[in-house]
Amino acid sequence: xxxxxxxxxxxxxxxxxxxxxxxxxxxxxxxxxxxxxxxxxxxxxxxxxxxxxxxxxxxxxxxxxxxxxxxxxxxxxxxxxxxxxxxxxxxxxxxxxxxxxxxxxxxxxxxxxxxxxxxxxxxxxxxxxxxxxxxxxxxxxxxxxxxxxxxxxxxxxxxxxxxxxxxxxxxxxxxxxxxxxxxxxxxxxxxxxxxxxxxxxxxxxxxxxxxxxxxxxxxxxxxxxxxxxxxxxxxxxxxxxxxxxxxxxxxxxxxxxxxxxxxxxxxxxxxxxxxxxxxxxxxxxxxxxxxxxxxxxxxxxxxxxxxxxxxxxxxxxxxxxxxxxxxxxxxxxxxxxxxxxxxxxxxxxxxxxxxxxxxxxxxxxxxxxxxxxxxxxxxxxxxxxxxxxxxxxxxxxxxxxxxxxxxxxxxxxxxxxxxxxxxxxxxxxxxxxxxxxxxxxxxxxxxxxxxxxxxxxxxxxxxxxxxxxxxxxxxxxxxxxxxxxxxxxxxxxxxxxxxxxxxxxxxxxxxxxxxxxxxxxxxxxxxxxxxxxxxxxxxxxxxxxxxxxxxxxxxxxxxxxxxxxxxxxxxxxxxxxxxxxxxxxxxxxxxxxxxxxxxxxxxxxxxxxxxxxxxxxxxx
Length: 620
What we know:
membrane; about 5% helix; 22-stranded antiparallel β-barrel; mainly beta; transmembrane; 33 strands; 5-stranded mixed β-sheet; globular; receptor; Plug_dom_sf; TonB-dependent vitamin B12 receptor
């Protein structure tokens, strides 16, 4: 039996659950949600051509995930990997694109580090999140560099309704515990929301003995503290002035082979912005946002020249100005926008260049013509390192009937190499100042079926990325440009009701490979998916879910030594409504204690139990 056939058999529970869900459609209700990320204009997703998912706060909690990254792994077309437990380096792959080809926004502001281009999803507390929008497919025509595979936009909680408090606490395996509390109010002309959370875990050993260089036989713990706020005031019905911010600090132990001994890393992410939303005329709304985000990483390190420990430091600061204008007309909705981004890097490592500035203007348009929907975007930007770049996108949707809709999108993308890729001085050669910027072309087409309370989508996609940047495992992992990376695949997604049962599932079949060699891109599977079944019975709610992926490799060479086998893990959840505003829950992850790898030679959590208690309500 071939390895690919074996992976399909191991994922068969997901395939069967998804097939059963599609075949037994019954009555249910699926409510549309307005989304912003797809066009930078709030729009009903049912009218868009874009491939978008939304995770609400309640849905995030229902996943049983300990971090946002783990929760995003339940989203169709998304894979997640992490080098061990909580707080460790993590990557998110949307439609098989590289991790630093996914743009992460928090309330419209860029988050993450300019040094490696990634975002630590463990640093964004789930308790602070109102909802998350995930846009699959290139969006450089709206957001510029990094939006090659897609965009993840996180919306933090806003004040609304009668003043009330909320709180939750959880305890589980590895002495993991957390508390979170907050206040929300939105009466008259003023809205306010504040939140606080703290989480600790003794953790488990990150590395396996097979990781001979880094292995240490110890637990690797984790601490995190966060605070967030949102305050705004309305001047009449047409004008709003607000300020919002997020601060997160985490401390995580990691393995370094004893050099230095028992090392820790401290990461801090902060984001603050001031915005003014004004209805200039009946048809013209303007939003001006000025903000700054900062990513700081300070870690215990070892100097192999002096054989002395020291503290390494990598700090990224991003100053941002966004001006979005929405204009409604008889000829559709128009977007006119301008952006300014100033990125600077401060580090104990040496960078020949430690800053760059990006300026851009964006135009967008969308309109409906009977059963037809058209949308288009164009972005022209000037990067201080790589010059001018123009990207565009066009989308089309056609509704055959009330139940059936066809969608198609085509666009171009752009991704500037990170500062680490270009200039990082690690004591020997580990960067490449001759790297070219990545440029991509993509196309997707899909069918949506919405009937009898069921929503089912099948999307096929192709993304060609010229000068794709990868780490050369045969040359000290120095970054290099491939001639072309190519990702071809499709995702099937469905959700609805079968009698009293809530069912959902997704299955992605893709081929993310180096166009020249035919080898798989690192840590991405050809086949992966999720499935979930749940039911509410009076004051009880239960859910059973599964998540799995096929064979992957930890290097671009696809060597046997770096092969990671396929896996399926299962979870169970049970909630009980104690009273009007009180709820208790039990969650079991990895029910069958399955051993599997997301990163070669790094452990993942075995069977884990968590109990929680939450309160939400009671006005003052």
